[in-house]
Design brief:
The chain has 23 helices and eleven strands. It is of the alpha+beta class.
């Protein structure tokens, strides 16, 4: 048994023993003569004390058998990839918690070097399954019957050292499934683990193999990377290894040489800082990790390299980089098969990211503020986050000035909205109804009655037509009559 701390041993035991539904499932597999192991990311996360509700298992059972054993014990089951040997289901524990379990037949896949998808073959033993996993920290398994930990590639040591290493030679592993190179960047961000130098070298050497990977798989890994707390780490790795040149070329293109007059800052560094700030604001304002926010922050300046002009007097300009950037972002996101809604949202945010800079020290008229709100539409909160994040100046006075101005803009937006809501308030009865109820024709009395009902509405909120009629009649009684 590899060396693990008593705390780690206790964590593994908790998953195995303190969970009646999982225990019963394991007993069913063993009763049918099959092996069942907790495996991969679940073992890693359990050892690190960060296990969520996902449990991955590997087994000697074939998919049909897995389904037969899982179905009667799960609230729901679904087929995540029968061809890959994976059946998933939800298990509910008596205490109300639930697990999402994914059970996969031992794999022993052979790869076709030119195919987009790994060729699948089922295996007969755990060892063959573990060696084809991406990283040693993801290649450990716990036997559900004995609790024994299998760690043939010293994943425990790598976990301790916080490094990413492949179970076999990285060149072979990455050549078999090039997506693993993107997974390395994702785990670097997600876990804060450093890929060992051989892995980084193999990423740089084999990056062109990513050509055989489908855009959807690449997108999914990029999204996972961007939704971590520290995407900068993984993004830097993708840029350093040249992988970004293939999957997101607009990002490394931001590394424009700083011109001799130092007239514009490093746009690449700026973009990563804007992303960091957008993530911090997203949290501070109570939002969940949001891919639209993050892509907009990362890509907001990708129009700059194309629009850079060296003007007379040594100045540099980037006219229309908002429009150009919006188009480039849409194109890239289309190539990566993002949804139409996501593409529209990100490119609109980029198009609007400079709008606030006309605001100056608060010179906008109310109608300019209203246009800002209308143009942002349902992206307004994200535009607030992007615009506020897009300030990375080291000049404290300037930063403060911008922040105060934006605060004022948000405050004016709230005020206008509140005023417009008030303006939209109508009494519970209209003029025609008033005339009908009081049996009078048009005239000053109707206006007075209308004003009475409006004041009442402001005071007491909506009354409904019945009560409004009662109140109107009572008021009418109390009015001095002309005759
Ligand atoms: P998380 O669930 O937090 O995203 P994970 O490590 O569980 O992380 P998954 O994508 O859920 O990642 O994969 C589950 C396990 O399957 C991994 O831990 C790894 O052992 C294995 N695996 C997944 N994708 C690959 C791949 N492309 N090549 C090799 N092994 C893989
Ligand atoms: Mg997982």
């Amino acid at each position: 048994m590899p060396d693990i701390t008593p705390t780690q041993a206790a964590r593994l035991d908790t998953v195995r023993a303190a969970t009646p539904a999982v225990r019963e499932l394991a007993a069913a597999f063993h009763g049918a003569g099959h092996e069942l192991y907790l495996v991969g990311g679940s073992v890693r996360d359990a050892l690190m004390g960060r296990l969520g509700n996902d449990l991955d298992f590997t087994t000697s059972a074939r998919p049909e058998e897995i389904e037969k054993l899982l179905k009667p014990r799960a609230v729901a089951t679904w087929d995540v990839g029968r061809a890959y040997g994976t059946i998933a289901g939800r298990l509910d524990e008596p205490d109300g918690t639930s697990w999402l379990v994914e059970i996969t037949t031992f794999r022993a896949d052979a790869y076709d070097p030119d195919s987009r998808k790994p060729q699948i073959a089922f295996g007969d033993h755990l060892g063959g399954d573990l060696i084809r996993r991406d990283f040693t920290v993801n290649a450990m398994a716990v036997a559900m019957d004995t609790g024994e930990l299998f760690d043939p590639f010293d994943g425990i040591i790598d976990l301790e050292d916080r490094v990413l290493r492949t179970p076999s030679a990285p060149e072979i592993s990455f050549s078999d499934d090039p997506l693993r190179m993107l997974r390395a960047a994702r785990f670097a961000s997600q876990l804060g683990f450093l890929p060992v130098p051989e892995v980084v070298r193999a990423m740089a050497d084999l990056k062109d193999r990513l050509e055989i990977v489908s855009a959807e798989r690449i997108r999914d890994e990029l999204v996972k990377l961007l939704l971590t707390d520290h995407p900068r780490i993984g993004l830097d790795l993708l840029v350093e290894t040249g992988i970004a040149d293939l999957v997101l070329p607009e990002l490394p293109a931001l590394k424009m040489e700083i011109d001799e007059h130092n007239h514009h800052k490093d746009v690449y560094e700026h973009s990563l800082t804007v992303l960091d700030q957008a993530i911090a604001l997203e949290k501070a304002r109570g939002h969940q990790p949001d891919i639209v926010n993050r892509l907009a922050a990362l890509l907001h300046d990708i129009g700059k390299p194309k629009t850079r002009r060296f003007e007379a007097g040594g100045k540099v300009s980037f006219y229309h980089h908002d429009i150009v950037g919006a188009k480039l972002a849409a194109k890239r996101m289309q190539a990566l098969r993002f949804s139409g809604d996501e593409i529209k949202a990100v490119s609109k945010l980029i198009e609007l990211h400079l709008r606030f800079h006309g605001y100056g020290e608060g010179q906008w008229t109310d109608s300019a503020v209203r246009r800002y709100v209308r143009d942002a539409g349902d992206l307004l909160e994200r535009l607030h986050i992007l615009t506020r994040s897009d300030c990375t100046t080291r000049n404290v006075a300037k930063a403060n000035r911008l922040r105060t101005a934006y605060e004022q803009l948000e405050w004016r937006i709230d005020e206008l909205a509140a005023q417009e809501e008030l303006d939209a308030i109508r009494p519970d009865l209209n003029g025609d109804q008033i005339m009908e109820i009081l049996g009078i024709g048009p005239g000053r009395e109707v206006g007075k009655a209308y004003k009475f009902l409006l004041d009442l509405r402001m005071e007491a909120g909506p009354l409904g037509p019945e009560r409004a009629k009662e109140e109107l009649l009572r008021w009418w009684e109390s009015q001095p009559k002309a005759d």
